[in-house]
Amino acid sequence: MIPDLFPVFNRVTIHYISEYYLNLRAALSDDKSHDTNDILLEIDQADAWLRNHDSDGFGEIQRYFKRSKQSMLLTLKKLKLASLWEDVFLLDSNAGKHSAAEYLKDKVVAIYFSMGNCSFSGAILPELKTFYDAIKTENRNFEVIFVTDLTSSDPPEDQNSDAKWLTVEYDQNFTDFMANLLSVQFPPALKVIKHDGTIVENNGITAVHLNANNPIGLFESWKALIYT
């Protein structure tokens, strides 16, 4: 007779998953730079679920772990983004330098990812500039942050020399980190985000184009999503 190995698999699986939770919890508890209460609660809930479902099928346990791990990674991603602007400085069009964490408070923030000197990117910028200027003319709290080239190891040519939006001091590591956090795969891209890192507008380029005659309306819709 073939022994029933599922209880053994379950116990081994739960043991390793619990170890994963334990190690993750320990690492986060030592992290004083973030508010980790949300993800610590997720870990406790996941661990409790496992202990109460140790007789469930092996596949169900695996599926639960996959779901909970994805949720935790998303929470971690938001934690990283929430503190992303710490120690980052923004440059304005007058060569002024600003602390990003302070300067971006209470503002609707759109991040534009450049594709270097691509003609498509060059065609987008005038429309984005017109949109940006229309919002700023109405004295709305809106900023576009121009993030440098994602396709080259060299700093790109300045594509926004006549625009008034902000830039980040060139740092390819920072650029790659930003692109990864906001899931930018094919620049150019424009993302509008909440302050916790949630993307409220994933395809800002299309939104700006479709609302060329109603920039304030689009801005207000973004603002409503951010502050609800």
UniProtKB/TrEMBL annotation:
The keyword Ribonucleoprotein does not apply. Keywords: NAD, Oxidoreductase, Repeat. SUPFAM superfamilies: Thioredoxin-like. PANTHER family: THIOREDOXIN, THIOREDOXIN DOMAIN-CONTAINING PROTEIN. This is protein-disulfide reductase. Its EC number is 1.8.1.8. Gene3D superfamilies: Glutaredoxin (3.40.30.10). InterPro entries: Nucleoredoxin-like (IPR052259), Thioredoxin-like_fold (IPR012336), Thioredoxin-like_sf (IPR036249). It catalyses: [protein]-dithiol + NADP(+) = [protein]-disulfide + NADPH + H(+); [protein]-dithiol + NAD(+) = [protein]-disulfide + NADH + H(+). The keyword NAD applies.
